[in-house]
Specification:
- The structure is a homodimer.
- The first copy, chain A, is globular, with a radius of gyration of 17 Å.
- By secondary structure, chain A is of the alpha/beta class.
- Chain A has helices at about 15-30, 45-50, 55-60, 65-70, 85-95, 105-110, 130-135, 150-165, 185-200, 210-215, 225, 230-245, and strands spanning about 5, 35-40, 70-75, 80, 120, 140-145, 175-180.
- Chain A has a 7-stranded mixed β-sheet with strand order 3-4-2-5-1-6-7, with helices on both faces.
- The first copy, chain A, starts with a strand and ends with a helix.
- Helix content of chain A is about 45%, strand content about 15%.
- The structure holds adenosine-5'-triphosphate (ATP) (2 copies) and magnesium ion (MG) (2 copies).
- One adenosine-5'-triphosphate sits at the interface of chains A and B.
Chain lengths: ~250, ~250
């Protein structure tokens, strides 16, 4: 079955977009057919892949375009459904529905069912109608966690919100907790990692290290594998990709 | 006149909350009467000040509480109007208004007009109805900018959105651009700072350096002046506070 993995945390700047892109491309490089969906009005997935999309998810959600028209082939075996500013209007249209608004994304992506091995969804740092739509569509959640006190607070809040959705969507699980910006030399990183091990033991992935190359790559429209395949960032995301492929539902 | 400064950028994790708290407390320590308003559902202002609020901005916006009931004295001369989860409900109520929704915050804060020297507003990393409300209330905008390519992209997007609001709210100006997470040893920091100098010359503030103490302080419910008054973070926010007080509208 097609795996649907949402990269979520309402705390900003934890590495959601970086993870979604480098996981999606990692899976494609390893031979899977992958769709990456950007549900953020920031639209940074397209920017980071060096693509300037004409249309994207907003047109699909508001039925102004078909999936064939809205999808862009970003790399071999990696298709993009771009986010961006137009999503603000689509969100308002969804908000106005009297019922079933939370299913709008699932209904829009229904024609693509079975066409990919993985759907990876990048989300905005907020708890809005679109992030709720993502939680009604995805089955697996990957939460990036930066080594910060406020981020840990954000994870607790997120799990509280998640529990509310799981009442209506039983298949949805927090499946991966991914430490990001990990710097072994800094005490804070070690302490936070210890706390994560206690709370999320089996869900906890190998940390992604702090790596300047990861933050430079989007400026060149490249994924980490293209920008610096031998960097700690590339290594880290290869390990994550491998773990997720090995888990094959 | 009461100065209303919103700390805004839709990009997540750039130091909005850290700046709002340490600026607001800096101004209070220097003798001003300050109100800090948290418009984010994350509610991290209260957490970072070591306060567990019963009610806050959400109750004020939906007229379930008066300003006297909703305000909390957080430090000497520093009053807090807390954010948090309840704001999600308040946002839905505002969304349903047929007109004037964007003025809801301004109308709710009207009874407080003139009672403070400064109102500092922390905002969520998103472009939602509440951040629009903030832009219709505040007159000055302070944008924290982390030394990242995706953040610079976020600043361009933000200015585009700002121009839309300024058509209806002529008094609103981007007044301060504050480099955050600045690390003189890293090339990226220097390069991004150079770009900011070219685009925002007179608006550009003295950078806030990367300082682990700034990220530790919220874990103890303390501002940087309480946690480590001699750290580079405390120095940086003292300089910012001084600049803003000297600008006295
Ligand atoms: N492991 C890492 N090491 C160094 N920099 C990183 C790392 N991961 C991400 N970055 C950089 O940190 C910044 C934040 O990451 P990113 O934009 O992916 O986070 P996000 O959670 O998607 O943010 P938002 O909440 O705004 O959507 C970006 O500039 C990115 O390039
Ligand atoms: N100058 C700094 N040096 C080191 N750490 C910092 C600095 N400024 C902020 N931080 C830390 O970085 C993280 C992000 O900062 P903060 O939460 O203030 O950003 P934000 O823009 O408010 O995020 P969000 O978009 O989620 O609201 C926090 O954990 C904070 O403690
Ligand atoms: Mg992102
Ligand atoms: Mg914040």
């Amino acid at each position: 079955a097609m795996r649907k993995i949402a990269v979520c945390l309402s705390k900003g700047g934890v590495g959601k977009t970086t993870t979604a892109i480098n996981l999606a491309h990692g899976l494609a490089v390893a031979g899977s057919n992958v769709l990456i969906v950007d549900t953020d009005t920031q639209g940074h997935v397209a920017t980071s892949l060096g693509i300037e999309p004409e249309i994207g998810l907003a047109e699909l959600l508001t039925q102004r375009a078909t999936p064939e028209e809205a999808l862009i082939l970003a790399r071999d075996r990696l298709w993009l459904l771009a986010g961006g500013r137009a999503l603000a209007g689509a969100k308002r249209e969804i908000d106005r529905k009297n019922f079933g608004g939370e299913q709008t994304l699932a209904e829009s992506l229904e024609p693509l069912e079975g066409k990919f091995d993985f759907v990876i969804l990048d989300t905005a740092p907020s708890l809005d109608i679109l992030s709720v739509n993502v939680l009604f569509y995805a089955k697996e959640i990957l939460t990036p966690v930066s080594p910060e006190v406020l981020t840990l607070q954000g994870v607790l809040d997120f799990q509280h919100n998640l529990a509310g959705v799981q009442k209506y969507h039983k298949d949805l699980h927090l499946k991966y907790v991914l430490p990001t910006f990990y710097d072994m030399r800094v005490r804070k990183s070690k302490e936070i990692l210890e706390q994560l091990k206690v709370h999320y033991e089996s869900l906890l992935c190998e940390p992604i290290r702090y790596s300047v190359k990861l933050s430079e790559a989007p400026g060149f429209g490249q994924t980490i594998y293209e920008y610096d395949p031998n960097s700690p960032g590339a290594e880290g995301y290869k390990i994550l990709t491998q773990r997720i492929m090995n888990d094959g539902n």
